[in-house]
Write a structure and sequence with these properties.
This protein is an alpha/beta fold and about 260 residues long. It folds into two domains: about 90 residues, Beta Barrel (Elongation Factor Tu (Ef-tu), domain 3), CATH 2.40.30.10; about 150 residues, Nucleotide-binding domain of ferredoxin-NADP reductase (FNR) module (Rossmann fold). The strands form three sheets. A seven-stranded antiparallel sheet has the order 4-3-7-1-2-6-5. Helix 6 links the parallel strand 12 and strand 13. The longest helix has 14 residues. The radius of gyration is 17 Å and the shape is globular. Bound molecules: flavin-adenine dinucleotide (FAD) and FE2/S2 (inorganic) cluster.
């Protein structure tokens, strides 16, 4: 798979809520090569400080060569990225990793917190395939309204049924995405695509196994290189071995993973 390193101009900055920012880059090579679930490594500073690029899921691409990332400010690197100005150029490496295996069957997408980020690209891809979309569902969950509400319209554009949940009940159903998933009557077969915190992925994995649904999970790990060179992103798998999230994933069949929770 071809990877590119592009100097990408920032063409739009959206502060969707508190610490959550969406950046749109002019990044035609990576946008054209990317598939849903893959990620990019972004150099957040102009020089070598910080030295390491930061990994971000590809939130969305379009035919005009634009690429979006959607992220939360959690530390220095994301803080620096959130402070970029329109017109600035940022070094982006990608697309990296293995993304979702898009199936023809009815789909249920489940995103918790920033785990919603890669699902918009997946929703777009599913909407472009010649298949019955009327039975597709997406469950978007967060702690509170501001983490969920700003993205709902974007997902609705793709014609899916959107179910929103918040831990505090300030928007949509009160509770976790796993509870919302349990209460849905989904078609069978159904492919379930998940991204979110590890306890959520572990819970979804059990629910899908019980119901006989195929389940793909996008997992996170701390990453230094993003390209299989440092071996810092390893996670245990169910065979007693290890996978490297950056090259073997970040998307895995849920049955491959040994959950560390
Ligand atoms: C494949 C992949 C895709 C990702 N996609 C997104 C995305 O679309 N949107 C988004 O907001 N974030 C995403 N992340 C997480 C993002 O990379 C981290 O939040 C970011 O690197 C933190 O950098 P920092 O310098 O701001 O924080 P640091 O100062 O390095 O760390 C601040 C805090 O964030 C935690 N942290 C750092 N890296 C990670 C990580 N990889 N996963 C979980 N916690 C971490 C640290 O433990 C610490 O508590 C992704 C991570 C991976 C591996
Ligand atoms: S991040 Fe270096 S091997 Fe995965």
């Amino acid at each position: 798979m071809t990877q590119y390193q592009e100097k990408a101009a920032v063409i739009r900055i959206e502060r969707l809520s508190g610490d959550n920012v969406r950046l749109t880059f002019d990044c035609p090579d990576i946008a054209a090569a990317a598939s849903p679930g893959q990620f990019v490594m972004i150099r957040v500073g102009t020089g070598n400080d910080p030295l390491l690029r930061r990994p971000f899921s590809i939130h969305q691409t379009d035919e005009d060569g634009h690429l979006q990332v959607y992220f939360k400010v959690v530390g220095r690197g994301t803080g620096m990225l959130a402070a970029v100005r329109e017109g600035a150029e940022v070094s982006i490496l990608g697309p990296l990793g293995r993304g979702f295996q898009v199936a023809d069957s009815p789909a249920c997408l489940v995103g918790g917190g920033l785990g919603m980020a890669p699902l918009l690209f997946l929703a777009r891809k599913l909407s472009q395939l010649k298949r019955d979309r009327s039975r597709d569902t997406i469950i978007l969950g967060g702690r509170t309204s501001s983490e969920v509400e700003p993205l709902v319209k974007d997902f609705e554009e793709f014609g899916m049924t959107v179910v929103a949940t918040t831990d505090d009940g300030s928007y949509g159903q009160r509770g976790f995405v796993t509870a919302a998933f349990s209460s849905l009557s989904l078609p069978s077969p159904c492919t379930v695509y998940c991204c979110g915190p590890e306890p959520m992925l572990a819970g979804m994995s059990v629910l899908c196994r019980t119901r006989g649904y195929s389940c793909q999970v996008s997992v996170e790990s701390v990453m230094a290189c993003g390209m299989g060179a440092c071996l810092g992103c390893s996670k245990p798998n169910r065979d007693g071995g290890y996978v490297h999230v950056c090259v073997d994933g970040p998307v895995f069949d849920a049955e491959e993973m040994a959950w560390n929770i």
